[in-house]
Design a protein that fits this description.
It is a single chain. The relative contact order is 0.11. The chain is an alpha/beta fold and 198 residues long. It has 7 helices and 7 strands, in the order H-H-H-E-E-E-H-E-H-E-H-E-H-E. Bound molecules: zinc ion.
Length: 198
């Protein structure tokens, strides 16, 4: 016997999620099938809502419900310092340390030869424009301490060095392979304080 077409289509969509294989996707699809129609509709509406109401901040690419996100529009923050991260969730991790008061720039990815993501796929134009306008005095590169994060950091250093502004790499160092989002706040806060000039 085969499952109905509608079921298979949902399984195919779910199996595209990171870390979700076909079997897990089937389990989730069964769970959704067993939900009450009201709960299933509520879930579908929430998926639609995040697409309708959340967009990338026009300055830094962070998740935002406004044109400019709450961090970029906060007048108490130091607008001359930019911390470059891979994903919006890295901002959450750094904010939790309470050791940083500048702005961010979210790459929305990292260089990843295995996944076919090259340097030209990373959009840093908005950032370079601000550097060229002389708005930025200091950059802290806070990409992950794994292979892709290091390659991304090298690319950023190469692109930003010609502008002669102060540039630092967050001092995650060991253990290599650590992703920003999984580092505890105390360690991440220390890594920010001990940032290394590059
Ligand atoms: Zn922003």
């Amino acid at each position: 016997m085969t499952f109905p077409k509608f079921f298979n289509e949902l399984v195919t969509s779910l199996s595209r999620f990171p870390g979700i294989g076909r079997r897990s996707a089937e389990r989730i699809a069964f769970y959704i099938l067993k939900m009450t129609p009201e709960n299933a509709k509520d879930l579908a509406r929430k998926i639609e809502d995040i697409h309708n109401h959340i967009r990338p901040c026009s300055m830094c690419n962070n998740f935002s419900t406004q044109e400019v996100c709450s961090i970029c529009s906060d007048y108490k923050r130091d607008k001359e310092v930019i911390c470059i991260v891979e994903e919006p969730k890295d901002i959450l991790a750094i904010e939790k340390t309470s050791q940083y008061n500048g702005l961010y720039y979210v790459l929305l990815g990292s260089v990843s030869p295995l996944e076919g993501i090259n340097t030209e796929d990373l959009n840093i134009r908005k950032l370079i424009n601000r550097i060229e306008r002389g708005e930025i005095k200091e950059i802290i590169i806070s990409t992950d301490a794994d292979n892709d994060g290091e390659l991304t950091a090298e690319f950023l250093i190469e692109k930003i060095s010609p502008y002669k502004i102060k540039m630092y790499r967050i001092a995650i160092g060991v253990p290599l392979g650590t992703q920003i989002e999984y580092i505890d706040s105390a360690t991440l806060g220390k890594a920010l304080l001990e940032k290394k000039p590059v």
